[in-house]
Amino acid sequence: MAAPSKYDSTASAVISAIGGKGNVKSVTHCATRLRFQLNDRDKADKAKVESTKGVITVVESGGQFQVVIGNDVAKVFESIVSNEGVSGEGGGSSGGIVARLIDLVTSIFTPFLWILAGTGLLKALLATAVWAWPSFGGTSTYAIWYAAGDAAFQFLPFFIAVTAAKKFKANQWTAIAIAGALVYSQTVAVIANADGVSQTLHDFAAAGGALNFFGIPLPMPAYLSAVIPMIFAIYAQAKLEQLLDRFMPSSIRNFVNPMVVLAVIVPVTFLVIGPLSNWLGDGLSNGVNWFWNLSPVIGGALMGAGWQVFVIFGLHWGFVPVMIQDLTTQGYSLLTGPLFAAVLAQGAATVAVFLKTKNKSLKGVAGPAAVSGILAGITEPAIYGVTLRLKRPFIYGVIGGAVGGAIAAAGGSAAEGFVVPGLITLTSTLNIGNFALQLIGTGVAMVIAFTLTMVLGFKDIAEEQETTGEVVDAGDVEVGSPVAGTVIPLAEVNDKVFSSGALGHGVGVLPTSGTVVAPVDGEVVSVMPHAYGLRTPGGLEVLVHIGIDTVKLDGRHFSPKVAQGARVARGDTLAQVDFDAVKADGYDTTTLVIITNASESDRVTMSTDADVDGAADLITVVR
């Protein structure tokens, strides 16, 4: 039997740390992240996940528990699905409209993202070849390679049919047939013109021919590379299939259902869904161009400054449909021009950290992360492992991205294909706008980020402060009470996960006031309305969990007063809570203080079993 690979080890450790496969509703992945939908967030140990070898960090956004892996995410995902018995089916987001939109976009586009990126890179290399050797563009060799690079984008409806059908739980083969009908209308000659020459439906309509379906005039927009029409068409397919499954006899369902779906959805798409989607897509594309025409410099600065911030929160996926729609309608997207400056600026800041830091471990992370970010455009290892972790270098990268993005946008620069912005795909902007300004903008962004990081510096991480999940100081620690109230032993808490000590040693308090305070001095490493993670300067990790199962309240009755990354002193207010309202909604208000990373040699004891005031000594940790 083969030994487990490093991906298997990472997968196994992650599943264990998030509460086992039984706590996973579903898992998908994007370019660098595993995106979990969990049944019970409280069972997941964020600190333990982040300390797992192969994991960069954890981000909680849009109702998802996102584990940032980096370039190896697909390998870890494959191991999770094949070896850990976890479903790879995408579940719906439980968040608001933005979270649901992001979940929809990632579910549909993630499976073929790297195909689009790879073919976009091939087209960028071909553009470079033609720039260096103009006559090459007229050869059949170029034509064959161009077909290889362009086909995936032209026949994008087939890709979307598969992934959208999976997302909406529709029949994938019927979805492919629907996509085929849309593409067929633009690729296969089926109708004669006045001269008797066969034409495609699209060309016939474009030449002024009158198309109709049972007398209803039929518009015929282009469906090659179509994105929005396919998504809506497959959604309609899924709803119709669900209706048919309720009434169609099982003896004929397997062949009658596809017939009915195709007979209904294809004409409805041609008559209604396609034209409306085309109008919506054109509106999005025209809106971007309108804004860019008002001030390309401001637009470029905003995209250059904001892109990496969007990446942190996963919001960058919201731009993907707009970019692809632009590529469909005009062959390029102005939104992509400033992104090269944004991405490479973070890479340059990471290079500066690599050269400047005295911390060997940080240097070991920064080197590979800089290479990945600059060459391939994959910046999440650089952001989470280096620049955002140190804060200042991330800000310097944002400043560089803003300036460089403004310069690139001023020249009307944009990528011709769907590419991941990086040094090796920079030539995808050769033919759109002013390539010289794109090079200048990208170079300026990198110089600004690198220089600011080198000159203004950052607070370096001392070797002994590296957080590996183990406690590094040897002094005793007094942990205060986060609320005033009555102390109860952990074993008496009405929750098996907490009372068993599975999450660590600790104490419960029945609160008598609504002010929740920090029980220790340290950094706020995680913030949820009902739970707060803190890390002391010596590495002790303390969880303050307000109430039992209160995650289900979705933040109602909780008013956080701190943000992730803030420094707090013992007694500082973390949150205000309306405990009466929490009780009225049927939830236990017991507030827990848990030491989540105590080692086997540590001794954790209750300091008192009496009533306590907020910030009174509650737990003693003997190191």
From TrEMBL:
The PTS EIIB type-1 domain, residue ranges: 8-90
Membrane topology field: Multi-pass membrane protein
Keyword presence, Phosphoprotein: no
An annotated GO cellular component: plasma membrane
Highest taxon, organism lineage: Bacteria
Active site location: C30 (phosphocysteine intermediate)
Pfam assignment, any one: PTS_EIIA_1
Keyword Hydrolase: no
GO biological process: phosphoenolpyruvate-dependent sugar phosphotransferase system; trehalose transport
Main subcellular localisation: membrane
Signal peptide bounds: none
EC number: 2.7.1.-
Record-annotated PTS EIIA type-1 domain positions: 495-597
Stretches assigned to the PTS EIIC type-1 domain: 103-472
Keyword terms, alphabetized: Cell membrane, Kinase, Membrane, Phosphotransferase system, Sugar transport, Transferase, Transmembrane, Transmembrane helix, Transport
Localization per Swiss-Prot or TrEMBL: Cell membrane
Gene Ontology terms, MF aspect: kinase activity; protein-N(PI)-phosphohistidine-sugar phosphotransferase activity; protein-phosphocysteine-trehalose phosphotransferase system transporter activity
NCBIfam families, sorted: PTBA, PTS-II-ABC-beta
Annotated PANTHER family: PHOSPHOTRANSFERASE SYSTEM TRANSPORT PROTEIN, PTS SYSTEM ARBUTIN-, CELLOBIOSE-, AND SALICIN-SPECIFIC EIIBC COMPONENT-RELATED
Protein name (record): Beta-glucoside-specific PTS transporter subunit IIABC
Natural source organism: Demequina capsici
